[in-house]
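Field: COMPLEX_INPUT
Field: COMPONENT_COUNT = two
Field: RESIDUE_TOTAL = 228
Field: MODE = joint
Values follow.
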Amino acid sequence: MKIAIQAGDFDAGSEIGKISKDSKIGAVASFVGLVRDVEMTLEHYPGMTERAIGRIVEEAKARWQVMDCTVIHRYGALKPNDQIVLVAVASGHRGDAFAACEFIMDYLKTQAPFWKKEQTGEGARWVEAKAADDKATERWR
Amino acid sequence: MRLKVRVLYFASVRERLGRDAEEIELPADVSTIAGLRSHLRARGGAWADTLVESRLLRTALNQDMAQPAAAIKAGDEVAFFPPVTGG
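Field: COMPLEX_OUTPUT
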C-alpha cells in the first residue's frame, strides 16, 4: 500500500509496475486524473489528507478484495494536461479492482481535503464543489 | 485549567479571514464545533460574513471530518474549510 501527497509529477507506468508481485493478483485497475484547460493551484491540509485517503483505502479493503493499492495526489501549481492524481488497485479479478478504484476516486473527491484554485482570464477563483460528486459518493452507501 | 484549541482555516475561508491558524482559549460555554463557529462569528466583520450559518462549510476535528455537534476539548485541532474539490 502506498499513499503519497506530493508537489512533483509521477510516472503512472512505473507506479503500476511497483504494485505487489503477489502471484494471486490477476488484475490492476488504475485511474489518472488530469488538469483540463486551466492553470490551477491545489491546496491541501497536510496530515489530514494522508489520513483521509488512508481511511478511504481501508474502507475499500473492507468491501472488496484489495491486494495492493497506490494513491498519489499532487498539490501546488499545475498546468493544463498535468497529472493530478493516480489510483491503482490490484486484486485477484477485475471486478473488485475496477469497483475499488472507482470507489476510492469517488470518496477522494468528497472526503479528501484538497481545494482547487483556477487561474482564469478574469483572475483566480476557487472551484465550487459539484453536487454530482456528492451523488457519486452517495451511491456507494 | 485553560482550555485551548488549535484552529485552522483553509482555501477560501483562509483567504477571507486573512489567517491560516490560531490558538484559541475557549469560553466556558463553548463545547462543540458549532459553538466555536458561533464564537468566532461574534468577532464581526469578515468573521461574521465568512462563518455565517447559511454558508456551507466543512469542519474537521483532529484531522477527521466532523459534524457541527462534535464535542471539542483542550488540545484539539479544529479546521474550517469549504467543501473539498480535489481529484
